[in-house]
Amino acid sequence: ESLGRSVKQMPGVVQPTQTTVATLRYQPSEYSEPLSLPQKLTPVEPLPTPNRTREFVLNHGIGGGTSGFIINDKSFDMNRVDTRVNLNQIEDWHIINQASIDHPFHLHTNRFQVIERNGQAESLLSWKDTVSIKGYETVTIRVRFEDFVGRTVYHCHILGHEDQGMMGIVEIS
Questions:
Q1: Which of 33, 121, 153, 160 is least surrounded by CB atoms within 10 angstroms?
Q2: How far apart are CA 166 and CA 171, in angstroms?
Q3: Range of 132's domain?
């Protein structure tokens, strides 16, 4: 009641109900023996040397005349292409977090490999679509743009950061 109203009095608030929204049904597996995990993971082949290297700086503050979360000093604009890449090209993206808070960086459509953190080689090579970048940390990812031509996005995977501008459009041609 610190705002002087209860939640029930606030306009636009949907009140909870006792309505069933989904029912899950399942059947026991046909398999009588449990499946076993492999003894070792399938090795991931490293992507070849990149055709290009780019730099992305994550921060918060003033960007493009608005405050919020920004990439390369720009707040998201759905009418602007921020990055143009060529299909089947391999790029290293050097992502610098200049903020004190973590940003999980997410790339749509194409998976990537984390190559290094703060200049040190990553010890375990794996395929990812999101990498957590700690405050003041620098991460390099290597990505091959394959199978898709058109526009897609990269962004901080914290919804509030994305909604406040920490997102960019990449166009693959």
A1: 33
A2: 17
A3: 52-172
